[in-house]
Amino acid sequence: MLILGVESSCDETGLALYDTEQGLLSHALHSQIDMHAAYGGVVPELASRDHIRRALPLTRHVLETAGKSLQDIDGIAYTQGPGLSGALLVGTSIAESLAFSLNLPTIGVHHLEGHLLAPLLEPDPPEFPFVALLVSGGHTQLMRVSAIGDYELLGDTLDDAAGEAFDKTAKLLGLSYPGGPAVSKLAAQGQAGTYQLPRPMLNSGDLNFSFSGLKTAVLTLVNQQRDTLDDTARANIAYEFQEAVTEVLTKKCMDALRKTGMKQLIVSGGVGANARLRERLNEAARRRHYHVHYPRLEFCTDNGAMIAFAGAMRMQQKMQESDHSFTVRPRWDLAELTKP
Ligand code: KG4
Ligand code: ZN
């Protein structure tokens, strides 16, 4: 079964072809980062308009790369939510129109389910059940994943997501959007011991997170250092901030594995691309004989491959008739998903 995947929930247009026998055949992405950078964040209307420009050329591109034609496709999966409503509407309407004209079944995929399953696209994927850490711009969640669609929330952030904290810290340090990679790059030049930042909820005993206090602590530091905030000071703050976030994430992941008795952890979402987080998780897991799985770097952030894959997994188990009418779900709780 050959599935075309369409991702357009935020500032990346992603297309991919996933074959249930042969695996991922092709994928392509256009990132709008340069377009939004001038505004310091995503401008929703510009995002929607750019998705319109990119979606069909990228569709042609993935078909050509895979040596396939539209007639070879067996189903179309698209991100139905959560995300920016205008951006979602572009991918959704293109996917449903294509499917209508080709008489194909469709499936609206939950964006976070896409992220969650992305590590399964890699060689030697984990088997169910496992613990998942989902760390993106909008989410910081620990989950017990027992099967496709069988997700139990173990812990969540009480306020800001980890990616959001990276983005806000980047702004405070005068770095460009998106903040995660920029903070991480600056942190590589920083040193330990100059500043101290809190490790929020490190020993709270539960699996929840809180990152807004950390952001406030960075703000206080930046204000205190205003006259002496040179490149070295900024690098040292970035370093300490990254240490604080990755220490908390690592500790809670180990707690989640211990509490559930599981041995496998998967990490997904944009912050999962962070090299220091991977280093800490790998080290902590190695000592306890746990195994950590990540998506390749380009599949940590938004992409079409994870949507094609999640859609294929669901369609394989349950084909749904579609009349090709559609709605998007800009707000959609992962807990509402059920098994296919
Ligand atoms: O998963 P994603 O692409 O989009 C959402 O669905 O939110 O995640 C984007 C988030 C942003 O907050 C970005 O700053 C962060 O992931 N991010 C990183 C890194 N790369 C992306 N954070 C820390 N280190 C990175 N290397
Ligand atoms: Zn995402």
Automatic annotation (TrEMBL):
Gene Ontology BP annotations: tRNA threonylcarbamoyladenosine modification
Reaction(s) catalysed (UniProt annotation): L-threonylcarbamoyladenylate + adenosine(37) in tRNA = N(6)-L-threonylcarbamoyladenosine(37) in tRNA + AMP + H(+)
Cofactor(s) the protein needs: Fe(2+)
Residues given in the record as substrate binding sites: L134, V135, S136, G137, G138, D167, G180, N274
Single GO MF annotation: tRNA N(6)-L-threonylcarbamoyladenine synthase activity
Entries under Gene3D superfamilies matching the protein: 3.30.420.40
EC number: 2.3.1.234
Binding site for Fe cation: H111, H115, D302
Enzyme class: transferase
SUPFAM superfamilies found in the cross-reference section: Actin-like ATPase domain
Protein's cellular compartments: Cytoplasm
Cofactor note: Binds 1 Fe(2+) ion per subunit.
Domain (Gcp-like): residue spans on this chain: 24-309
InterPro entries: ATPase_NBD, Gcp-like_dom, KAE1/TsaD, TsaD
GO cellular component, one term: cytoplasm
Keywords carried by this UniProt record: Acyltransferase, Cytoplasm, Iron, Metal-binding, Transferase, tRNA processing
Any one Pfam family match given in the protein's UniProt record, by short name: TsaD
Annotated function: Required for the formation of a threonylcarbamoyl group on adenosine at position 37 (t(6)A37) in tRNAs that read codons beginning with adenine. Is involved in the transfer of the threonylcarbamoyl moiety of threonylcarbamoyl-AMP (TC-AMP) to the N6 group of A37, together with TsaE and TsaB. TsaD likely plays a direct catalytic role in this reaction.
Family the entry assigns: Belongs to the KAE1 / TsaD family.
UniProt-recorded name of the protein: tRNA N6-adenosine threonylcarbamoyltransferase
Organism of derivation: Methylobacillus rhizosphaerae
